Amino acid sequence: MAQTAAVPAAMLPAYWEEARKHLAKRDRVMKKLIPKFGEACLQSRGDAFTTLARSIVGQQISVKAAQSVWERFALAVGSPATRLQPAEVLAVDTPRLREAGLSARKCEYLLDLARHFRDGQVHPAQWEGMDDETIITELVAIRGIGRWTAEMFLIFHLLRPNVLPLDDLGLLKGISLNYFSGEPVSRAEAREVGEAWAPFRSVATWYIWRSLDPLPVEY
Fold first, then answer.
1. What is the DSSP letter of 191?
2. Is there a cis peptide before residue 199, judged by omega within 30 degrees of 0?
3. Per-residue pLDDT reduced to its tens digit, 184-209
4. SS3 62
5. Is residue 116 domain-shared with residue 186, that is, in the same domain?
6. CA-CA distance, 14 to 10, in Å (whole number)?
7. Is residue 94 part of a domain?
8. Which residues form the HhH-GPD domain (predicted)?
9. 53 with 148, same domain?
10. Domain identity same for 69 and 86
């Protein structure tokens, strides 16, 4: 498994080094995994609306296909693919969105997402002071966003340190391979493994994903 390039200290989440030390001390698997990936870490990209829009576009299709559709979607909206605005999405009619390769359902989801942001039904400016479950409740009220998507958003965009996404198949597979010799694991067993990771369960989850694929996980 290849070593990854070092990440400048300024780009590390504030808790990352503390989390690495904590996990290596508390968990035998983490003690072996963490050194394999150098200074690589979680990194937030984009803004909240764009990140959530990308998650909707990418549902149930391959990463390659999702990127192609995303680029056509951004072109249809007339906005840089790195930062879309809700008003720009709402200004485009559904037939034009469909021409970008989006299903009718995904068009509905993206428009609902845009309306939630435009109308102030989500509160990005207040998220920093809100707990994880409150943010999840706010996000799953948007069509097309379930708990898994909300948890990925907490991990990858808000960089919340203690999220354990038990609906994530990669996490369950990684726990199976690393802790149970490949035997299938239940959510309850995964939760029990994750108890030793607190208060840095997001970080441990990230390393479990990396054990399956050495390329950085992005969202």
1. H
2. yes
3. 999 999 999 999 999 999 999 999 99
4. coil
5. no
6. 9
7. yes
8. 57-213
9. yes
10. yes
Helices (H), 119-212: 132-140, 147-156, 169-179, 187-195, 201-212
CA triplet 133, 136, 137: central angle to 5 degrees? 90
145 and 172 belong to one structural domain: no
Measured between alpha carbons, how far is residue 44 from residues 13, 18, 76, 102, 138 in Å? Answer: 9, 19, 25, 25, 20
Rounded to the nearest angstrom, the gap between the alpha carbon of residue 36 and the centroid of all alpha carbons in its chain is 22
**The residue type at 45:** R
The CATH number linked to 203 is 1.10.1670.40
Residue 28 lies in a domain: yes
Neighbours of 201 (CB within 10 A): 24
8 A C-beta contact, residue 74 and residue 84: yes
What is the token pair recorded at 60? 């149930």
Residue entry with tokens 């959530």: 52
Same domain, 25 and 67: no
Q: How many domains does the chain have?
A: 2
- Tens digit of each residue's pLDDT (9 = 90 or more) over 22-58: 999 999 999 999 999 888 888 887 789 999 999 999 8
Residue 126, domain extent: 48-156
Q: Where are the beta strands (DSSP E) in 15-171?
A: none
Tokens of 50: 């764009």
- Are residues 193 and 174 in contact, defined by beta-carbon separation less than 8 angstroms? no
From first CA to last CA, the distance across the chain in angstroms is: 22
